[in-house]
TrEMBL record:
This is Centrosomal protein 76. It comes from Cyprinus carpio carpio. Residues 102-258 form the CEP76 C2 domain. One of its GO terms (cellular component) is centrosome. One of its GO terms (biological process) is regulation of centriole replication. Residues 522-658 form the Centrosomal protein of 76 kDa C-terminal domain. Pfam families: CEP76-C2, CEP76_C, CEP76_N, CEPT76_peptidase. Transmembrane segments: none annotated. It is found in: Cytoplasm, Cytoskeleton, Microtubule organizing center, Centrosome. Residues 363-493 form the CEP76/DRC7 peptidase-like domain. InterPro entries: CEP76, CEP76-C2, CEP76_C, CEP76_N, CEPT76/DRC7_peptidase-like_dom. Keywords: Cytoplasm. Residues 10-69 form the CEP76 N-terminal domain.
Length: 661
């Protein structure tokens, strides 16, 4: 196969740079010297080229070169990767089959190597895992300028063997500049950090956020050799945000190397100026927020008890304006509609921030990257992500802060239609509720609409640009009028003040917004695997009861239509295809036989956990333990993959048997 001249030149350059990086010349010199010494001692004839090649092969030099020379895409690639060919790294090809990608010799890259971890003292007593043993693992996630990467999981240990290399493209921002190579001055002005998130996955598949770290990579610009090593001390999250959890050894290198390095003092000065500028903006916003809050309290004394949330703590214990947690997030072709976006968010598991000991609920708002990597979070994380996606779909969306039943603090999302309609979106379930306000001045005999939503009071609403506090006489949701132009009902913050600290790039302390990753689950393979496991568990359960198991594969196949209809209903709110399913079942069940079916929905793919949960239902147990004449059993599993690691798992158990009176 012939290559075009420019591709051949590019390939030669890549191979040449890789051989230099491996110090191939030094290895060849060592082998040559050793071979010459060995032959001289034995008085053999002079070396030929063929003898030397054999010596290289015996030492494994050629094999090492061929094995390592693989540029591959990370398994977790983003929607933007098809446009920006930047998600590139070296990967052990034995892990999985990965795609190859092109590296442009005309672009600048930051090669970030993770050379292992140390001092993860929580795992000091962790025993060495045996070969094939299932154990808890660490996975490192990275985000840099719209590029996302994920390491292969490694066993948890005091010194975890995190050995990875990531090639990050440092592209320019200006119009028409994306294809040009960034020089030292341009890179110095790029204040976007490398966001590193460390996730622990236990043996049951449950994930825990260990650390969220922001690496300022620009110190490499002042390194004399173009390379620098960094010991990154990772701190805990939430209530442990001041406690070190471990250290990662990193090495940074620019490719191709800079022709002229900057002075370390120049880099330090730039970083210091950015910190000063950020601190001044944050100080001015705090002064404004205090004045605005005082004015709000003067309107009505009862406002002191309203849930008006201006600042919130992130996973690192940093207080940030709540508007900075919302971004305009476009999902490309990963999500097709606002309702599908709501379904995706609802599939991310619910978990409150862990707290040591009892007491009041620990509130922790996560950065979007940490939330997506952990794949679970509290109502605030779900609401801000859903609001960001709805804004990306062009809706006028806001996060609502208030309470639900029993006066429990809660957040949800609302959208304002062009016709004045107000719709509430529940981020945990993807349910939508049309708001119909009650008229308190209407005569007693006039029927009033009954609220269908679970929300009780509303303190404030916000998105990425606006923050408005509810200053109506009553903060009951059913009495609220959502006319944001009416200053007597809603007190708005200055949009300019919000923009000064919340707009992308306004301050260097704001975490960058990550793109969504395409699904990491192959739905057909996952469905088949989980269905086989469920069949095995069901058959074993019946064997323990002394019952035989006879499968009806045709009936199992027919259940797919029902599961597909259930998922479609969750996405669109419309149930369709049920008539065809019912007709097919009637044809498959002979006269005089009874059919029973039990569908159930999960957010995980752990077969044993799912089967145990199913048996808690008396109706499901009745199907699984069915006794009678001519009993035939069926089970069908459908896994629907969504962005990130989110998936909807539908399982349906069914049986048919001859009715005996």
């Amino acid at each position: 196969m012939s290559l075009p001249p420019e591709k051949a030149t590019e390939l030669k350059q890549i191979i040449h740079d890789h051989l230099i990086k491996m110090d191939i010349h030094g290895k060849i010199r060592d082998v040559l010297a050793e071979t010459v010494r060995g032959d001289g001692q034995h008085g053999q004839r002079s070396l030929s080229e063929e003898d030397f090649i054999h010596a290289l092969q015996r030492r494994g030099i050629v094999e090492d070169v061929m094995k390592d020379l693989h540029f591959t895409n990370d398994v977790s690639h983003t929607e933007a990767d098809s446009v920006n060919k930047s998600a590139t790294r070296f990967v052990d090809k034995n892990i999985t089959q990965l795609k190859t990608t092109n590296i442009s010799p005309l672009r600048r890259y930051l090669y970030l190597q993770v050379l292992g971890g140390k001092a993860f003292l929580e795992h000091l007593q962790e025993p060495e895992p045996l070969p094939g043993q299932v154990c808890s693992t660490f996975t490192l996630h990275l985000h840099f300028r719209n590029q996302r990467f994920r390491s292969k999981p490694v066993p948890c240990a005091c010194e975890p063997d995190l050995q990875e290399g990531f090639l990050l493209e440092v592209h320019r921002d200006g119009p028409g500049d994306a294809s040009k190579m960034a020089d030292a001055t341009t890179m110095l002005s790029i204040c976007d950090p490398v966001h590193m998130v460390l996730i622990k996955t236990d043996t049951s598949g449950d994930t825990t956020l260990i650390s969220s770290y922001f690496l300022d990579w620009r110190r490499v610009l002042g390194a004399p050799t173009g390379k620098t090593s960094v010991s990154a001390e990772l701190l805990g999250v939430g209530s442990e945000c001041k406690v070190a959890v471990g250290v990662l050894n990193l090495k940074l290198e620019l490719y191709p190397p800079l022709t002229e390095n900057l002075s370390p003092d120049v880099v330090t000065t730039q970083q210091s100026l950015e910190r000063q500028k950020t601190a001044e903006k944050e100080r001015l916003f705090l002064v404004y927020a205090k004045q605005w809050w005082q004015e709000f309290l003067e309107i009505r004394p009862s406002h002191q008890s309203k849930l008006v949330k201006i600042f919130a703590q992130d996973e690192n214990g940093v207080n940030r304006p709540v508007c900075s947690y919302v971004r305009v997030l476009r999902a490309g072709r990963l999500l097709e509609s606002p309702r599908q976006a709501a379904r995706f968010v609802s599939l991310l598991a619910q978990e409150r921030a862990p707290v040591v000991g009892g007491g009041v609920r620990q509130e922790q708002w996560c950065s979007m990257m940490a939330f997506l990597c952990r794949n679970k979070g509290d109502c605030e994380d779900h609401a801000t992500l859903l609001c960001s996606l709805l804004l990306g779909f062009g809706l006028d969306a806001y996060v609502c802060v208030g309470t639900k039943a029993k006066n429990v603090p809660y957040t949800w999302v609302m959208t304002c239609g062009t016709d004045g309609s107000i719709t509430f979106w529940e981020s945990f379930t993807a349910h939508r509720y049309l708001h119909r306000p009650i008229d308190p001045d209407a005569p007693p005999m006039v029927p009033q609409p009954k609220p269908t939503h679970p929300y009780r009071t509303l303190g404030c609403v916000f998105n990425n640009k606006r923050f408005l506090a509810n200053c109506q006489p009553s903060d009951a949701v059913e009495l609220c009028v959502f006319d944001f132009t009416d200053g007597s009902r809603w007190k708005a913050m200055s949009e300019e003040a919000v923009r000064s600290v919340c707009a992308p790039g306004s301050t260097s302390s704001l975490p960058p917004t990550p793109p969504l990753c395409s699904p990491s689950v192959a739905p057909n393979e996952a469905s088949n695997q989980l269905e086989l496991e469920m069949r095995y568990l069901l058959a074993e359960h019946r064997k323990d009861l002394g019952l035989a198991t006879v499968w009806d594969d045709h009936l199992s196949y027919l259940l797919s239509a029902a599961l597909s209809a259930y998922e479609l209903e969750r996405c669109t709110g419309v149930l369709c295809g049920n008539e065809e399913f019912q007709d097919a079942v009637r044809r498959a069940v002979p006269d005089g036989h009874t059919f029973k079916g039990f569908p159930i929905h999960f957010l995980h793919r752990n077969a044993r956990r799912a089967f145990t949960t199913c048996l808690r239902s008396a109706f499901c147990e009745e199907i699984v333990c069915c006794r009678g004449d001519h009993v035939r059993l069926a089970v069908r599993v459908r896994v629907f993959a969504y962005p990130e690691a989110a998936c909807a798992v539908w399982i349906m158990f069914a049986c048919k048997y001859r009715s005996v009176l």
